[in-house]
Amino acid sequence: MAHRTMDELKAALPEIEAAPKEGVIRAIVVRPSSGMREMPESAEMSLARGMHGDHWEKGCWLSTEDGQPHPDVQICMMPARMIAAIAGEDTAAWGPAGDNLFIDMDLSPANCPPGTRLSMGSVELEITGVPHNGCESFIERYGRDACVFVNTGTGKAMRLRGIYGRVVKDGAVAVGDAVRKIG
What we know:
Elements: H1 6-17, E1 23-28, E2 42-46, E3 50-51, E4 75-79, H2 80-87, E5 101-104, E6 117-120, E7 123-127, H3 136-142, H4 144-151, H5 153-157, E8 163-169, E9 171-174, E10 178-182
Parallel strand pairs: 4-5
Antiparallel strand pairs: 1-5, 1-10, 2-3, 2-9, 4-8, 6-7, 6-10, 7-8
C-alpha cells in the first residue's frame, strides 16, 4: 500500500470533519498479541477483560499501581473516515493501526469530551482523557505524513488518531451497530 501524502490527507479533511455526531461501527479489531490482528464481525467486551481476546488484559503500556492494565486505555477507537483517508476504504487495511473500533463518528473533544458515555450494541463505554498518539509502528504502517497529520494541528485538536474508552457496561458489539451518546 502506498502511503498517503500530506496533501492527500489535507484534501480529505472536509469529509473527515463532516462525520456525524452519532455514528456506526465500521470495523472491529482484536489484537491477540503484539502485531497480530483479527477482524471479527462481533466481539464481547467487559470491564474485567476489555475486548475479549485482546492483549490489553495481559498487560499494556499503561498500568495501575498494582500492575494491572489500566482501564483508561482499555478500548481504543479511531474515526473511520480518518483511517479510510490513510489506508483506503478496504477495512482489511485498517487493522494494523492497532485500534479496537473504527467508528464513523465525530470523536473530537467538542463532540466526545472525556466522561462522555457511548452506547453501542449492548455495551456502554466512557471516554477517558488519556491521549492517543501515533507511534513508530503507525509510521511504519501508514507513513510519516499520516503520523504527523494525526498528531499535530487540526489532526491533534480533533483527536484524529483516536480516543480511549473504558467499559462501563459489559456486552457485545457488532459491525454496523449504531453508536449513540447517552446521558
